[in-house]
């Protein structure tokens, strides 16, 4: 080897992982002039970063040895030799001993680690690390619809490149990130994996493929041919969390670049990396920067029913707005936004530059601008019906007190994926009795479901009953009264519980007292009727199964009253006629 003709670099990085790319970018920005990435495959983890950051990547290069020659390290690959002041081994291997914490059914649609699933599929990625972000970006980039289940993910522990790419995927509505949900069980239904998330925020979801991102382990020096002399020089670094069995020159992706610069390049004035919160001051310019970075939709309609209750519509910058009536989507605002109240938000300081996300059922205008039953799937916006949640000693709501200050034209985050099994898919008899029971804004999904039934010419009775505190809490009452005038088989029963002179009754009372039969002449039957429930869990009263028996909560909910009459709960593998929303 002729060292005079060898390439001379400040830093050679082995492996185009998110951490390796982050280190290359930060090193160039810190003043290093020549940084080379050696990647054994034909692609890096996040290829979109190469062009904008002018990264120098050698594809198809595999490092065979790293040694000390004179004042420099020498890296030999299968193609070239490099003289360099420092080396970062950013490549890592999947842990071959790792197994998911849940039992998996045998299926060629469930994978651990990188796998070519093809394109145009619904894919769930499970994981918390850069590796999970890399898999998510790769699968999304080839045209799949991807959900990342990342319960417990701390974005500050991702590499800067991984964190930035994940936020970009969310911003562009290419990926849905479930920051609070992860599968607790996976089963096969008709050969396709069904993920059970074990909480009511996220219903069971079925996918074409599920991919687990296993932990990665730091390479041993022998894996890339590091000699003892090179290792003892203190100029060969490894990407990964250090432990007693690893070299001292091992650091996680979000700080390894600083560690290398501090140790090997004392002439550079490099300061320790700061968290996203530390990097941003709270002036208006920083807030506008955060809005531009995170928000991907515009509020096109904001109509207060009163000061604490609003109907709003949101139009995304890009992406589809089609949905099935009854489904939901997520909205988000940043912790940096002002609140309408003066409650002490315990998360605001720690998560000031992060998004607050909540799921809301998609509502419906019911009538379009011409007075016809609306077809909201033909529009580029989604409607939501939202109430301001007041703070209590036990709960300080984060999103709605910030949403209360928004108006038409303001920006907001809209999640990319519409989801939910709370739909009319089980209603196949056009003469069936259909009952919708809701509390407050729980009638939001029912608005579109009622419209769907009427548009399809449903001939059986349709009843929508809702309990609210006062008549002023009925945001759609005029539209429902117009439906009653037009369709004799439709009945709207608003039930205010705090209006003077009106007896206080609840939805359970409608079932106990046979109101539908006595007031409307409509008999409910477990063989022909369907009942849909959305709102306060105490009203619904979903039981727990203990030793094969159902145990109902107190006070008595609608589900218990209906099961006593022969109705059955609709479950994925056991269809029934009691349906309830599950994301509360």
Summarize the helices and strands and which ones pair or pack.
Elements: E1 7-14, H1 18-30, E2 35-39, H2 50-53, E3 56-59, E4 63-69, E5 72-77, E6 81-89, E7 92-94, E8 110-112, E9 122-126, H3 130-141, E10 145-149, H4 160-171, E11 175-178, E12 185-189, E13 192-196, E14 205-206, E15 209-212, E16 216-218, H5 228-232, E17 236-239, E18 250-251, H6 256-264, H7 276-279, H8 284-294, E19 297-306, E20 309-316, E21 328-334, E22 355-363, E23 382-387, H9 400-403, E24 411-414, E25 433-439, H10 444-455, E26 462-468, H11 477-486, E27 490-496, H12 507-512, H13 515-520, E28 529-534, H14 537-540, E29 544-546, E30 549-551, H15 558-563, E31 578-580
Parallel strand pairs: 1-2, 1-6, 2-3, 6-17, 8-15, 9-10, 9-15, 10-11, 17-18, 25-26, 25-28, 26-27, 28-31
Antiparallel strand pairs: 4-5, 5-6, 7-16, 12-13, 13-14, 19-20, 19-24, 20-23, 21-22, 21-24, 22-23, 29-30
Write a structural description.
It is a single chain. The chain folds into four domains: 7-93 and 217-264, 3-Layer(bba) Sandwich (FAD/NAD(P)-binding domain), CATH 3.50.50; 110-214, 3-Layer(bba) Sandwich (FAD/NAD(P)-binding domain), CATH 3.50.50.60; 284-414, Translation factors (Elongation Factor Tu (Ef-tu), domain 3), CATH 2.40.30; 433-580, 3-Layer(aba) Sandwich (Rossmann fold), CATH 3.40.50.80. It is an alpha/beta fold and 584 residues long. The relative contact order is 0.09. Residues 1-6 and 275-280 have low confidence and may be disordered. The longest helix is centred in the first third of the chain and has 13 residues, at 18-30. Strand 2, helix 2 (50-53) and strand 3 (56-59) form a beta-alpha-beta unit. The chain has 15 helices and 31 strands.
């Amino acid at each position: 080897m002729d060292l005079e003709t060898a390439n001379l670099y400040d830093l050679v990085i082995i492996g185009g992982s998110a951490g390796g790319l982050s280190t290359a970018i930060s090193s160039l920005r810190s003043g290093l002039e020549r940084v080379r990435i050696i990647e054994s495959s034909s692609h890096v983890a996040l290829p979109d970063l190469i062009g904008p950051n002018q990264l120098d990547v050698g594809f198809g290069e595999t490092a065979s040895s790293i040694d000390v020659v004179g004042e420099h390290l020498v890296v030999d690959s299968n193609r070239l030799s490099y003289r360099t002041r420092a080396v970062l081994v950013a490549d890592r291997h999947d842990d071959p001993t790792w197994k998911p914490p849940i039992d998996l059914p045998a299926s060629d649609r469930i994978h651990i680690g990188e796998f070519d699933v093809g394109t145009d599929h619904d894919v769930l990625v499970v994981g918390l690390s850069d590796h999970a972000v890399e898999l998510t970006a790769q699968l999304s980039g080839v045209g799949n619809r991807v959900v990342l289940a990342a319960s417990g993910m701390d974005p500050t522990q991702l590499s800067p490149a991984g964190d930035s790419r994940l936020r970009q995927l969310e911003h562009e509505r290419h990926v849905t990130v479930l920051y609070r949900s992860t599968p607790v069980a996976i089963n096969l239904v008709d050969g396709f994996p069904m993920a059970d998330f074990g909480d009511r925020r996220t219903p069971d979801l079925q996918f074409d493929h599920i991919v687990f991102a296993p932990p990665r382990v730091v390479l041993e020096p022998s894996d890339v041919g590091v000699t003892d002399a090179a290792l003892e020089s203190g100029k060969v670094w490894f990407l990964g969390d250090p432990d007693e069995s690893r070299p001292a020159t091992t650091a996680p992706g979000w700080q390894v670049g600083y560690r290398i610069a501090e140790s090997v390049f004392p002439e550079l004035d490099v300061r320790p990396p700061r968290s996203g919160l530390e990097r941003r001051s709270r002036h208006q310019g920083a807030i506008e920067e955060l809005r531009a970075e995170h928000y991907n939709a515009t509020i096109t309609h904001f109509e207060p029913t009163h000061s604490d209750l609003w109907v709003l519509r949101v139009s995304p910058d890009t992406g589809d707005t089609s949905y099935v009536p009854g489904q939901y989507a997520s909205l988000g605002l940043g912790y940096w936004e002002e609140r309408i109240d003066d409650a002490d938000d315990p998360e605001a300081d720690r998560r000031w530059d992060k998004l607050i996300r909540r799921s809301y059922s998609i509502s419906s205008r019911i009538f379009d601008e011409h007075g016809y039953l609306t077809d909201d799937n033909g529009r580029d916006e989604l409607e939501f019906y939202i109430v301001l949640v007041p703070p209590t000693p036990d709960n300080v709501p984060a999103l709605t007190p910030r949403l209360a200050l928004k108006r038409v034209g303001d920006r907001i985050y809209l999640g990319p994926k519409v989801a939910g099994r709370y739909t009319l898919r089980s209603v196949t008899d056009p003469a069936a009795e259909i009952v919708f029971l809701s509390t407050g804004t729980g009638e939001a999904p029912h608005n579109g479901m009622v419209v769907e039934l009427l548009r399809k010419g449903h001939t059986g009775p349709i009843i929508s009953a809702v309990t609210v505190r006062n008549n002023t809490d009925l945001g759609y009452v005029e539209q429902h009264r117009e439906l009653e005038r037009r369709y004799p088989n439709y009945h709207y029963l608003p039930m205010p519980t705090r209006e003077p002179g009106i007896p206080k009754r609840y939805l359970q009372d409608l079932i106990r007292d046979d109101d539908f039969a006595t007031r409307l002449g409509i008999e409910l039957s477990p063989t022909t009727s369907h009942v849909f429930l959305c709102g306060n869990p105490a009203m619904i009263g979903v039981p727990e199964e203990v030793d094969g028996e159902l145990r109902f909560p107190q006070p008595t909910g609608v589900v218990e009253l209906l099961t006593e009459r022969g109705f059955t709960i609709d479950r994925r593998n056991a269809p029934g006629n009691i349906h309830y929303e599950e994301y509360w």
